[in-house]
Amino acid sequence: MLRTILLYLSDAGWARRIVRNWRLARRVSSRFIAGETLDEACEVVRRLNQKGMFTSLDHLGENVTNADEADAARDDYTHMLQRIADTNLQSNISVKLSQLGLDVDFERCLHNIRVIVTQAASFGIMVRIDMEDSSTVDRTLEIFRELQRSGPNNVGLVLQAYLFRTQDDLNALSHLHAHVRLCKGAYNEPAEVAFPRKADVDRNFDHLSSQLLDFAKSTAERPASSGKFPPITAIATHDERRIAHAVHHAETIDMPKGSIEFQMLYGIRPDLQNRLAASGYPVRVYVPFGSEWYPYFVRRLAERPANLKFFISHLIRRKGNES
Ligand code: FDA
What we know:
By secondary structure, this protein is of the alpha/beta class. Helices cover 52% and strands 13% of the residues.
């Protein structure tokens, strides 16, 4: 119930306007957001790289409503790619198609992501297309397939274990040697399209992660098919049981540690990030930054009631100090 309310609020323009201007919310959100500027985010990336971790930079923004905003987001990303290349950061990028105009004009969005993917390829950098709410999945897959068909295979996408359709989507992608990041799913989805119970999402996650590893194994046995950007199975979760399942399956089918990448969000379970990196697994931290932090922040609150308690207790303490 609380999760549903928070996820509704993450999408509500009026709540966004109020909370974004709230200094306290900005301070609390800094646990999950690497700063408002590219300089701040690059500093976070540099520190994570020094600890032996890779990153994926996300310039926060989504659901743009006009072509100028979409084109500006594209230009921000190409600027970011140039910076990654110039400073030798070990980072790729994550992009939301609704930030590049998916809801404004499909062709323009395709053009914008193509510009980004082409520039990234010239620097040897991967681009990951985040998956948004279920209304965007068909269009996201269409754009992904188009980029796969015509590009250098430096583009990956995200599948969400909470959606009923994901098994079919994964089957359909299996022959494409697609770079897949598997996550649980962060949006407010109706029971007609997504598992309402966490236990079912977890079970599906394990099933899909095993299948992804099996696909990766069969691709690795055909090295000619992997090209310059060999697919690495990306397991994006902070759930230790899901991670243990993936590790166990990878060991059972004899996959080397380097063929599986654990991905986590900036500010969440840094202890687990360090532990996995120290045990020899590639770890990639998703590093969001920018002024459009509101929906991302509220989704993080929705995932864990303790975060909301922390937020409210800060608020009460502060109000107490003021009175
Ligand atoms: P779960 O929610 O079961 O949490 C497991 C444990 O992790 C918790 O017990 C707690 O310890 C810790 N934890 C989880 N969330 C926390 C939080 N907010 N604050 C503090 N602790 C927390 N989703 C999506 O729909 N599209 C996408 O493209 C992506 N992309 C993406 C990339 C990466 C790298 C990650 C890690 C995640 C995503 N997600 C996403 C988000 C994902 O769908 C999911 O909402 C979160 O990862 C939380 O789920 P967990 O798998 O961590 O499990």
